[in-house]
């Protein structure tokens, strides 16, 4: 686990939202009010000019301070980039009452929540569930249009807020916690999903000139959003850069750390769109483009999201051309996901079963190539070895679609590096986010020319960067400053589909590329 | 009316909580989010680094900005002394929708509320009512003890919050306003009253070492206190310096302006205690002492608070010794208030009817002096001229009590000026606050040696400074900075009742003073 875990000591040299304070008790010589006394100490420890205290905490404060001998464990939160901190909870410094935060990856399809102990950074619980808005529409566009109906936005908003409340409550129950122990929610999602969560109209996100209601949401009280956690609890939503570049990507940058390295590195997140960030500790460029569906396995007839029985890895013996498939949970195969498709294309190419334009080569495919209604299909798994009772096949059209996707991806990578005058081979680190990144074999992706020909160790799979970035916010105050830094540094590159782009795209539609010299490591059969 | 009235123009050179903004509309070239666009403009106009937007405002914002052509009238509020502003309301810049604030003088006995139009500073409505906590106890101490009962604090808190809600609603109705038009409440009161309003335990205010829960309350949302105004409305409570020096006095200093003048000036507020502030634009000293009851008319048998039929002014012809009384509303006299008592003492002294120790002089009082149960009484109003059917009389004990009070007042004034090494005669301005200040005749007060012998024009009656100070907060953002400046500058002088104090007190128990040279203007009959 590559995550900042909070360092704690009593000297105040900590970076988390939990702070221990010890005050000198009041006397006739020093009769400062309780709240002002605590604020003065917190100001010192937090190195800030301003601390405010929530009324619910203030009302308990004089009793608690006297009970605890003028010491307390304090839950604090910073007000965005203003020099203002809020004290939102106090607990007995001698007891280990749990103080918890929830990280949320608010995906269009799946939502992941994670309970984190704020004092230690310990992960207590992970859970994921379908975004209930799927019932309104599977994609963002349908949901945005649904908001134009009377009560539509309120309905979609309630769906996700209610689901989060339910899931947070269940997660707390599983850990023997009360929702009142939750003081902080950090939430990352794309711009549309965070707008729906906040109850903000997404109407203008999809209409020229594509204007979000807000890019940098303020830290709000949880009850403003209807979240049922501690009444003083706060919600931090990772900011977006625009309608098509969301807080999930900012979380990804934060987690990847590309913004902290001197060497330029790249972060790629493949979902419905391919989102790419390139940069280092002094600049960041981002862009997004349509490259995803085929890579996610969403286009091929047998393509599906990763899940039990789905082919995620595949090998073809270049000599015997025997297929070896691996499925998730090692069940009988029922379909193929993006990483499986990439392995398939790479192995077909390396064994000569497809040519450099991705066309099936009949003499190499042999009996695996079958015609149905005049369309050529390649059998990947025979009927008697498949989990569906039917053979698993891909068509020439499926393969063409994959090749267009890989070409689009490479073209985006070429365009973004070109835009800042560096070569793809200059990259010292190449981060791949998401489920896609978790399963993909970089060697296969390089073989088909989807990713640049870099040493395999250059590629790094980061997992759910949206969740990890949100988790980082829960355990590090510095992360807020870092996020603000990312926001200020980043330039969004509009991908103009002009002649240069189309030329690059055409050149990339070959396996691995028209310019073979770019992929020296890819060795096909002579 | 000596109050800062807000200056407004479209250049941004304003000092109120209402700001007009005009934005450039979004385009493909400038696709900043609505909220961020508005924030950037407000940051410029407010000269601040941080603006936050309440969620309720944010949800309406994209619709409103488009309806209004990217212009808006904004209601903003500053977060204490942090460089952070909140946008809490927007309204159509072309309509004159009223945006209102409520100033509250939260007195132990009487509460005064005032509705103020925030755009213009116009006073729309004043109302006053008895503090409903009088039902629990007339004085602060009884109420504080009542809080030790289970549910006691909650009961006292609900009493005042409910009464304020009722009165604000009625006041709004009277002006054709809705409580939703109220965005700001500024409240001044003594430390105990503000603690009860905030729902904070006053328990430790009266127990050594006399610690308030809070001196500088943060700006809170009205609903945190249970106040029913606009849901985004804010409450600003004027800070106290300690248990015995409340926000009402800070309001007084703000209104008097002594903190903005180079010449040292003094502010005196006589209530249950005499509270005194001395200072100028670089320093402030404050103290409080028991001097009040007799001066408020609270001790004499016929003493009462100012009201219809109460003697507020009195003259005795030095030749004929005929009494001329003036009553409030010119009704038949039923009692005498503080200013009447001071006039009485001064005139009795100047006409020789009391001696320099305040003793009745029988040969001068003549038939007005009567004995009842061996006690000497002086008849002020005969039975047939009185509104009660009984003669209005004061006893020697009443007069002694008044003299102790005036001596205490003078001693406090002498002590506080002495503490900073200036003479009472150095004072260029002498402000008297409150009802007491509104009625008192400075010449009479000087005649008995209660106030120093300064030219009459030096004395200035300020009226309800607590209400006026709170009103100033409603119309001037600068006032918040000024209040913070007052808080930081002020030194609280503990009045040690030591030998020096007692010596001064004894010397001040003569009329006008043992040291006659201090009162050259006071001419008694030879």
Q: Overall 3D geometry of chain A?
A: elongated
Oligomeric description of these chains = homodimer
Sheet/helix structural class of chain A: alpha/beta
> Biggest interface pair, residues each?
A-B, 46 and 46 residues
**How much is the radius of gyration of chain A in Å?**
26 Å
Strand order in the sheet with the most strands of chain A: 7-6-5-8-10-9
Low-pLDDT stretches of chain A are 1-13
What is the total tally of β strands of chain A?
22
Q: Distance between termini of chain A?
A: 43 Å
Q: What is the mean pLDDT of chain A? A: 92
Count of helical stretches of chain A: 15
Query: Beta fraction of the residues of chain A?
Result: 15-25%
Could you estimate the helical fraction of the residues of chain A in percent?
Answer: 25-40%
- What can be said about the biggest beta sheet of chain A? 6 strands, mixed
Task: Describe the 3D structure.
With 526 residues, chain A is an alpha/beta fold. In chain A, 31% of the residues lie in helices and 23% in strands. Chain A has helices at 34-46, 55-67, 140-146, 152-174, 191-198, 247-256, 292-295, 338-350, 362-365, 396-419, 434-439, 442-447, 465-475, 478-489, 499-508, and strands at residues 18-22, 51-53, 71-78, 85-91, 100-106, 110-117, 123-130, 182-189, 220-221, 234-237, 265-270, 274-279, 284-289, 310-316, 323-327, 335-336, 369-372, 375-381, 392-395, 429-433, 459-463, 490-492. In chain A, the strands form five sheets. Chain A has a six-stranded mixed beta sheet, with helices on both faces. In chain A, strands 21-20-11-12-13-22 form a six-stranded mixed beta sheet, with helices on both faces. In chain A, helix 6 packs across helix 13 and helix 10 packs across helix 15 (499-508). In chain A, 52% of the residues are buried. Chains A and B meet through helix 1 and helix 2 of A and helix 1 and helix 2 of B.
């Amino acid at each position: 686990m590559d995550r900042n875990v909070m360092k704690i000591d009593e000297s105040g040299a900590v970076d988390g939202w939990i702070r221990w304070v010890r005050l000198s008790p009041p006397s006739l010589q020093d009769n400062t009010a309780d709240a002002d006394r605590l604020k003065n100490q917190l100001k010192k420890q937090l190195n800030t000019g301003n601390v405010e205290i929530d009324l619910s905490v203030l009302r308990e404060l004089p009793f608690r301070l006297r009970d605890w001998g003028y010491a307390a464990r304090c839950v604090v939160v910073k007000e965005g980039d203003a020099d203002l901190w809020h004290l939102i909870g106090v607990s007995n410094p001698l007891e280990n009452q749990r103080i918890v935060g929830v990280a949320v990856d608010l995906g269009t399809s799946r939502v992941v929540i994670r309970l984190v102990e704020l004092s230690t950074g310990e992960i207590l619980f992970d859970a994921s569930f379908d975004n209930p808005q799927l019932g309104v529409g599977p994609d963002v566009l349908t949901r945005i249009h649904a908001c134009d109906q009377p009560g539509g936005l309120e309905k979609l908003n309630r769906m996700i807020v209610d689901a989060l409340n339910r899931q947070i409550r269940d997660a707390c129950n599983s850990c023997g916690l009360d929702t009142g122990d939750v003081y902080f929610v950090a939430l990352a999602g794309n711009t549309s999903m965070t707008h729906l969560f906040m109850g903000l109209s997404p109407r203008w996100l999809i209409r020229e000139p594509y204007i979000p209601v807000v890019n940098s949401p303020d830290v709000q009280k949880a009850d403003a959003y209807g979240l049922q956690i501690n009444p003083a609890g706060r919600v931090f939503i990772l900011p977006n850069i625009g309608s098509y570049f969301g807080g999930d990507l900012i979380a990804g940058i934060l987690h990847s750390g590309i913004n902290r390295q001197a060497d330029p590195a790249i972060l790629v997140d493949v979902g419905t769109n391919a989102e790419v960030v390139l940069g280092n500790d002094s600049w960041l460029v981002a862009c997004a483009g349509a490259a995803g569906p085929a890579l996610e396995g969403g286009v091929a007839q047998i393509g599906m999201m990763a899940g039990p029985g789905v082919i995620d890895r595949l090998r073809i013996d270049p000599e015997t051309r025997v297929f070896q498939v691996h499925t998730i949970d090692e069940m009988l195969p029922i379909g193929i996901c993006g990483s499986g498709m990439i392995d398939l294309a790479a192995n077909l190419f390396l064994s000569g079963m497809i040519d450099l334009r991705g066309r099936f080569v009949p003499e190499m495919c042999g009996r695996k190539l079958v015609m149905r209604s005049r369309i050529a299909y390649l059998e990947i798994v025979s009927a008697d070895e498949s989990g569906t009772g039917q053979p698993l096949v891909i068509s020439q059209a499926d393969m063409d679609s994959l090749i267009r996707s890989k070409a689009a991806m490479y073209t985006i990578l070429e365009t973004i590096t070109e835009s800042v005058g560096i070569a793809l081979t200059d990259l010292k680190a190449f981060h791949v986010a998401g489920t896609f990144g978790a399963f993909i074999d970089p060697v296969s992706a390089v073989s088909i020319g989807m990713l640049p020909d870099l040493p395999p160790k250059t590629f790094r799979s980061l997992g759910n960067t949206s969740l990890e970035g949100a988790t980082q916010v829960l355990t590090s105050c510095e992360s807020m400053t870092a996020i603000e830094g990312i926001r200020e540094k980043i330039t969004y590159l509009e991908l103009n589909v002009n002649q240069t782009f189309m030329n690059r795209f055409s050149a990339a539609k070959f396996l691995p590329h028209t310019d073979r010299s770019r992929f020296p490591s890819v060795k096909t059969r002579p």
